[in-house]
Amino acid sequence: MADDMFRAPLHRGMRALDRSKFQKVVPLKAARIFDNKNISKVRSTLEKSKDALHQDRLGSVHPDPDPEHAKIGRKCVLLRPDTSDDGPAKPHSSTITELIQQQLISIVPFSLHLDYTYWTYHDIISAILPEDAQDEIPSGFSQVGHVAHLNLRDEYLAYKHLIAEILIDKNPGVRTVINKIDDVGEENEFRTFKYEVLAGPDDLNVEVSEENCIFRFDYSKVYWNTRLNTEHRRLVDLFREGEAVCDVMAGIGPFAVPAGKNGVFVWANDLNPDSYSSLTDAVTRNKVSNYVQPYNEDGRAFIRTASARLAQADHSVNILSRPSKKEPNTKPSILRTLQQPRTFQHFALNLPASALTFLPSFIGLYPQSLRAHLPETFAMPLVHVYCFSTKSDDNVAEGTQICEEIGRQLQYPGMKPGKVDHDGDGAVEVFDVRDVAPKKRMFYCPKKSPSGRHDKLLIVVKDDPSPQSSCELIANL
């Protein structure tokens, strides 16, 4: 009964948002406080006895309902709806009776006025949508800067503009709401998508902050997924200061720029000219140009050309001391020097739809002509590759299929799920890490091979709106 009293009024079938329709007067009782110095004491006492109103987004202390009392600053404490002084059927609680006897309060009627600003998005949209459309009310969206990105199901398209208006009203950081009208990457190879503006200005030039880095970009022209923040951090945490990383499909730099802030040398590439432009801006804006070099080249060629150029590059960064507060004018001294390695310790290939097809570029990555510029012995790189796969209850078949495809691309047959300590060549251990969406699962697959050609595999499902699973594979080649 109490919940119904505070529920938004129903307006089934409303198509154009009329905020004035959402008005309600809730009849309550209130404890009038005779002396304002007792406000805190009375409120605490009534809250402790559970006589005070406890309702989301509503405080219990309000101005006195009598204008004359309100004019001189008198306050009252709203009481829960089942508190009453109307006859013996609903007597006061012992706490209220005691406060009355102490002449601290009196009980008065109170009309609580609620309007559109009180109710949440879910409250309002639930009061508008038909009863048969209440099971999966559109509530989730991705926010990129000031843009809210929806992916509405067909049955809710008739209410799309109304949904968008309410979202803007109830989310202060949102100024524009868009709805995706095709799959990511369907429009072109740069993983952009077609969209329609449902509310607000058609302005997708956004600014986002991730891992203490600022990125500015046109969301309609580059790929960005806010839900991948955890995955970005996980991968960057694998890199160590002074290592060299080749980010083959860098996008606007969610791996490269934070890694650069950690003292990692990153050669960051993306084929999309708009991504490259935003990446270059992010490198400058976040002051990591000593560590991050942006490129705009074909990824397959970049794997090999970047490796060749790095082998002959000579670059280092001095780590300087910082002036102390006591001696701010002290000249900084060189604490240590980071020398850029001649080989990459990591490659990142974050293009799930086709990244596995880039693996052949690693075969013969270091020919004899290139080895002449390298130390006699050096560690092979760790390659992080994202791919799509299906999901099942145990993912056994998926693990096998992924390993077989990796082996086919690398011309290294025999890669299969197993145990790391198996004597057999090409064993891969696959086990669940976590589910990240209804049809997506995370895996970790260490891989060990006596031949030394492949050393480790890591497969991780990314949070992606695709009906498939997005996986990451790491392999020493």
Jot down its keywords.
477 residues, alpha/beta, Alpha-Beta Plaits, GMP Synthetase, Chain A, domain 3, Rossmann fold, 3 domains, six-stranded mixed sheet, four-stranded antiparallel sheet, 25% strand
Secondary-structure map:
Elements (H helix, E strand, L loop, with lengths): L1 H4 L18 E10 L5 H10 L12 E3 L3 H5 L3 E4 L15 H8 L3 E10 L6 H8 L13 E3 L2 E4 L9 H11 L5 E5 L14 E5 L5 E6 L2 E6 L10 H8 L7 E4 L8 H6 L3 E5 L3 H13 L6 E4 L3 H14 L3 E5 L13 E6 L6 E4 L18 H4 L10 E8 L6 H15 L5 E2 L9 E2 L2 E7 L2 E5 L2 E2 L20 E8 L1
3D architecture notes:
- With 477 residues, this protein is α/β, with parallel strands linked by helices.
- It has three domains: 24-114, Alpha-Beta Plaits (2-Layer Sandwich); 121-203, Met-10+ protein-like domains (GMP Synthetase, Chain A, domain 3), CATH 3.30.300; 223-476, Rossmann fold (3-Layer(aba) Sandwich).
- 22% of the residues lie in helices and 25% in strands.
- The protein contains twelve helices and 23 strands.
- It has helices at residues 2-5, 39-48, 67-71, 94-101, 121-128, 160-170, 229-236, 256-261, 273-285, 299-312, 368-371, 396-410, and strands at residues 24-33, 61-63, 75-78, 105-114, 142-144, 147-150, 176-180, 195-199, 205-210, 213-218, 244-247, 265-269, 292-295, 316-320, 334-339, 346-349, 382-389, 416-417, 427-428, 431-437, 440-444, 447-448, 469-476.
- The strands form seven sheets. The chain has a six-stranded mixed sheet, with helices on both faces.
- Helix 8 (256-261) links the parallel strand 11 (244-247) and strand 12.
- The radius of gyration is 31 Å and the shape is elongated.
- 36% of the residues are buried.
- Residues 419-438 and 440-477 have low confidence and may be disordered.
